[in-house]
Structures are given as structure tokens and as C-alpha cells.
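Handout, page 2. Input:
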Amino acid sequence: MRIKGQEQIAAILGVAPKTITEWQVVGFPVAVQGGPGVPSEYDAPACVAWLVEREVRKVQAESPKDRLNRLQGDKLERDMLVDSRMLIPAEEVEPLWASAVLNAREYLVNEPPRLASLMIGLAKPEVEAMLEATFEEFLKRLSNWRAPDVDDDEDDPDAAEEDAE
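Output:
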């Protein structure tokens, strides 16, 4: 059902015509935009639906207390994931990752001189085969790399006392 004029739609919605003007700025639906001396037209069901959706959004908005509860719940969940080792803090991962990268770098830095001396006088297919084998070895080492075991006893004074006995 089409309604002509802000006054008419304002009366249906129980608000002042000025409110309709303010709402139009934030998305209130206008079926046909009017002009000087020509009233705008509004689709009543679309306008009611817009108003209902706007009010529902207001009710569903997160209050400061809701936000605090959500953040506390998120922290509790993160702490539980850390405790169960399903989530590992970055400060624990970074040194291991750096060690893995350094290990890979060390292997790659040492390979060119070794390969250069082995490849003297070889034909292209043999050079390619040697490079392929070297890369395969590198990838194998990379996939099998494990961080050095950390001695947990150093951090646990009770374990150190038990070892001394």
C-alpha cells in the first residue's frame, strides 16, 4: 500500500513528520522521491518492516555488561585451550620456528660449495639429478626436523631435588 507524503506515513507510524525526514537520512525506504511541491511516496509494509528491524537491532545491541561477559568467556576459553595445549602462545612457538629456519638456512648455505665440487665435469642430466637429490634431502630434513628437547627439570625445583636423592 502506497502512502503519499511524510505527514501520512508519520501518522501511520506514530511519529512526527520531522522524524521521517531524519530516518530517511539513515535508510528509511522511500518508494518514489518527491520534489518541490510533489510529496514523496512510501510503501507502508516496507516502512513498517524497516522500523521493526531498526528496533530489533537496538534491542540486540551488545550492552557494556554483555561485552564484558563475552570477553571474560573468551579469555576463559583461551586459557583452557592453552592449558590443554591445543593453543600454543606465540612466545613459545617463535623460538622453535627460528631454530627450524636457522637449521634449514645452515643446510642450504653449506650445500653450494659441496655441490660445486661434486658437479665438475658432469653432464646437465647428472647435474639436474644431483640438485634434485639435494632438494629432496633438504625437504626430508625439513619435514623430519624436531625441536631439541627442553629439560623440564630445570624449571621444576621439586624434580631437581628428586634427581639429587
